[in-house]
Specification:
Radius of gyration of chain A: 26 Å
CATH class of the largest domain in chain A: Alpha Beta
Low-confidence stretches of chain A: none
Distance between the termini of chain A: 42 Å
Shape of chain A: globular
CATH topology of the largest domain in chain A: Molybdenum Cofactor Biosythetic Enzyme, Chain A
Number of helices of chain A: 14
Largest interface: A-B, 102 and 101 residues
Number of domains of chain A: 3
Largest sheet of chain A: 6 strands, mixed
CATH superfamily of the largest domain in chain A: MoaB/Mog-like domain
Oligomer: homodimer
Strand order of the largest sheet of chain A: 2-1-3-8-7-6
CATH architecture of the largest domain in chain A: 3-Layer(aba) Sandwich
């Protein structure tokens, strides 16, 4: 089986200033193509470190890709080090210089001279066009091995990979065997309880199972080389834990709830407090969300809860804003305000302050409504403010999904 | 200077299923302590790959840290490979087993037997308590070198690092020299235009500058070993590009706007459409946000824009929802609805559909109001739906920040 390696270059990654999202994106693309990433090395913008990473990877993997350090500023030294490693001169490319100048003149700006270095290419390398920025990708091939270099800006890297590198790889290797895999997403059960519920799973030979605990839920990835065997493992798992499963593969809570609402011809609305807009952000994440999302409010004060949603002053004074009663009035209020068939309300304590003995930080009351049904759920989430907000918003979606799927757990 | 290396273990990272946020977090912590990460290697859950990474790192760096693969399921093999590499037996630890059982009984659950392996520790290693999960951290030290292993779940890793590893490192090394650094955040100017505006910068000897382009803005990080020299470089930069700077170091758009609003005793409200709740999510991200955030609406339909915000039917039919006129009526509507002193409205086309010849995808109209001032801005953002929504929400915050700072660009 063919394979690949990724070298991420950049002080900012090793200083923790930047999260390396490029690795996940590239790794996913390469695995899907049948060029799984075997190893990834992250090094500083340092000549010796870049050279050492190239020595470790080049010729040991079919494909080696570097990201980062191709920009126009002084700390961008990747191109020089690539040229040095492969023993090539840097050559000025008039066409690339034209391209850089065009990018600036389109925006009505003069081209800073500092960008001239963007038009330099190691001799024998192919420049890959970058329509989203000034740094071209680089490609070199020798005895069946390929090397690519991309800029570190994610949008530019993705663009050059898709339009420049991917066609070359698909053309070059005719023997690619993509890893077959299928992932099941569960909700409402812990990793070890799932493991026990699945036991004994008796996976077919050649099928493997990876456990992927996510924030607030667990994913199960089945992988191997034979689709029929993976499918039979999936069926066996579904018989045991089906009611905890809400989706598979690329499904996300928002993609699943959007599809369910669209299929059933429903619109949903939201009144949220502690999640501060996050639940609505999720619901409007996908294109075409206005088909399924009616609108909503972030009722951050008691006054707004009363004025916009009709939560009674008595409820607020007697039970407080973080209560089952308030969640139920909020959900009924937003549903009638927006004339939607489904609605969710969220009111809780995201912390770190605001907790009391009776209502600990992490306590969140949800109100749900679907047609004439109205019900509430209370859940205590762990973690910091960010985690509590995120888990609460996702919990609201997943709970509504399970109900829209006609299940109860 | 002392240094460190990080080994990230997990198929899911190299398959692109998981973004390695642990690396950024740990790297930032280690750099701040004076143990900068020199190199990071990511490998699969594979005995040979784990062994090879340990061989490459152990004894070459002062501190080596592994994350991932310490869970209770079959694919978690890190602990066995660590024991093999260091030539140790795995020993059952009754105290750890008690701890695991306590964790489950607290949640009212029986302890799945599969968790017994969590109580095994390589002989001569110290187990580091993990109060957030069942997998303890591991610590081993030899001739001035330290090795740590943490579970891959971010909340558990952070917790064990902070409570277990950090105190050990600070106690063990008395000669740590933290890298001194200061980062300036700019807005409203491109990377190369900034580079030209700063030119010639004449950095003092021993001070370095890293350019960190972010989505929609550029950060400049000055670093070195002498604080006074870094400070003088910063002053020189500020003289040239001061009006484009809105914050420094750990400042984020929401931390800066929150501080400005709090200082000036103001509350802000939001009416958003294409950003679908994201701007409000940002504004409520930090603890105590109810001091500065009054509340708002996601007016996803014309009906809600009219009913809640009082946008006139004439404006909507004549200019459309994506217009200066609508943005201005939205911002005035939400400001009066919430009685706030400041307000922002956002209405635009996040795409990928919905664009027209006159109003391209990425076109976003903003309305702003501060006391009696009301103004609008239109901006066209590039990128996909996610990028447009994110950039638009951040643009709204940064534009208001510059105004609250009494500047105009």
């Amino acid at each position: 089986m063919r394979n690949s390696a990724i070298i991420s270059i950049g002080n900012e990654i090793l200083l923790g200033k930047t999260v390396n999202t490029n690795l996940a994106w590239l790794a996913s693309e390469l695995a899907a193509m049948g060029l799984p990433v075997e190893c990834s090395i992250t090094v500083k913008d340092d000549p010796e470190a870049i050279g050492s990473a190239l020595r470790q990877c080049w010729k040991h993997y079919d494909v080696v890709i570097s990201t980062g350090g191709l920009g126009p500023t002084d700390d961008d030294i990747t191109k020089q080090e690539i040229a040095r490693f492969f023993g090539r001169e840097l050559v000025f490319d008039e066409k690339l210089w034209q391209h850089v100048q065009n990018l600036f003149s389109k925006r009505g700006l003069p081209t800073p001279q500092i960008n001239r270095c963007q038009a330099m290419v190691p001799a024998g390398f192919t420049a890959l066009s970058n329509w989203r920025g000034t740094a071209p990708g680089l490609y070199y091939s020798d005895q069946g091995h390929c090397f690519f270099a991309f800029a570190g800006v994610p949008a530019e890297m993705m663009h050059v990979f898709e339009t420049g590198a991917k066609p070359i790889l698909l053309d070059k290797y005719h023997d690619l065997e993509p890893v077959l895999q299928k992932t099941l997403h569960s909700f409402g059960i812990s990793e070890s309880a799932l493991a026990e519920a699945l036991c004994p799973l008796n996976l077919p030979r050649g099928v493997h199972l990876a456990w992927l605990p996510q924030t607030g839920r667990v994913d199960l990835r089945f992988y191997g080389e034979r689709e029929d065997l993976i499918e039979s493992a999936i069926q066996a798992a579904k018989e045991k834990i089906g009611k905890y499963l809400w989706g598979s593969d690329e499904d996300t809570p928002v993609s699943v709830i959007s599809a369910l609402l669209r299929e059933q011809g429903l619109k949903i609305s939201v009144a949220e407090s502690c999640t501060g807009g996050l639940l609505q952000t999720m619901l409007t994440d996908l294109a075409g969300s206005s088909d399924i999302y009616a609108g909503g409010v972030v009722s951050y004060s008691n006054e707004l809860k009363n004025k916009l949603l009709g939560v009674s002053a008595e409820t607020l004074s007697r039970h407080g804003a973080v209560s089952t009663e308030c969640a139920l009035e909020m959900v009924e209020g937003i549903k009638s305000l927006t004339n939607s068939q489904a609605a969710i309300s969220v009111t809780g304590i995201a912390g770190p302050d605001g907790g009391t003995k009776e209502k600990a930080v992490g306590t969140v009351h949800f109100g749900f409504s679907l047609f004439k049904d109205v019900w509430s759920v209370v859940h205590i989430f762990s973690g910091d403010r960010q985690a509590i907000r995120y888990k609460a918003a996702e919990y609201a979606l997943l709970h509504m999904i399970i109900r829209l799927q006609g299940k109860r757990i």
